[in-house]
Amino acid sequence: MGYFILKRMMSIVPVFLFVMLITTGMIHLSSVDPAEAYLAAAHIQPTDEILEQKRQEFGLDHPFFLQYVHAIIRICQLDFGISYLSNQPVLDEVMVRLPATLQLAFGSFVIAIIVSVPLGFIAGIKKNSAVDHISRVISFFGASIPTFWLGYILIFFFSVKLDLFPVEGVGTWKHLVLPAITLAIPLIAMYTRLLRTSVLENLEEPYVLFARTRGISERVIMTKHVLRIAISPMITGLGMNLGKLLTGTIIVESVFSWPGFGRYFIEAIFNRDIPVIQCYVLIAAVLFIVSSLIVDLIQMYIDPRISRKEG
């Protein structure tokens, strides 16, 4: 396992270099001049002298390769630059907003697991039952409804009509309920159907028949054998969506005025705050890589054969 982890950690290096190439190239491919964007955010009338001064300050007068190398050195020193809008270090502002996004992502993640695992498992072992039909309705509803519309519907019924939860902002656990549910419902739809399908496929495998002929109880077969193997595709899906949850909460944070990282990114796009946009892209890539590594380690724990294959 140690060799596997080391190999995966080493694979992060070329991905990091590629992401840095993309983020650095954004400046050259974009029609927006970073110097002009900075002066516009600072409400300073641009002149040729000031523009040239800012381009030299940002290192934009250097060749692309030197800009790329300098960007790598800065990021390795955790220097993401200064926000054009607030004139504050980008990393400091991200660290202020990231806990709110982590809280929202973790809440929705827990809700999705608590609901989808038992629902998908029961729907699989009891095909065409009432639970199975309910899971199909939930999956169809969750997969088809737009996230922003679902958020507004929840606000209308539970905040405006019933006055059970706050409409926006953060503070108590009640502020977390509606945005977390809004994020969790599409995940519940996906994971429930994924687990149900996997359970049905594993019930047809020979090892289930052999276990029954050996006299092993049905409960043990279902929980220690079928569920252990059937949940593997779901874990892969969870890992793929973990990074998405941490960086893709943009719509929900906008609907519920949640002061998180995603909303900060939207504001940066509107204000052409290039250092913030570059920081967001890099953090998103790192989160996807780390979540993928975590999933692989969990898969190796569930199925030790993966470790032997990788070795």
UniProtKB/TrEMBL annotation:
Q: Where in the cell is it found?
A: Cell membrane
Where is it predominantly found?
membrane
**Occurrences of domain ABC transmembrane type-1 (ranges):** 98-299
What are the UniProt keywords, alphabetically? Answer: Cell membrane, Ion transport, Membrane, Nickel, Nickel transport, Transmembrane, Transmembrane helix, Transport
- UniProt-listed CDD domains: TM_PBP2
Q: Give Gene Ontology CC terms.
A: plasma membrane
A single GO molecular-function term is: nickel cation transmembrane transporter activity
TM ranges: 12-29, 104-125, 137-160, 172-191, 279-302
The membrane topology term of the UniProt record is: Multi-pass membrane protein
UniProt family annotation:
Belongs to the binding-protein-dependent transport system permease family. OppBC subfamily.
What does the subunit section of this Swiss-Prot or TrEMBL entry state? The complex is composed of two ATP-binding proteins (NikD and NikE), two transmembrane proteins (NikB and NikC) and a solute-binding protein (NikA).
Mind telling me what this protein is named? Nickel import system permease protein NikB
Give the species. Priestia veravalensis
Q: What is the lineage of its organism?
A: Bacteria, Bacillati, Bacillota, Bacilli, Bacillales
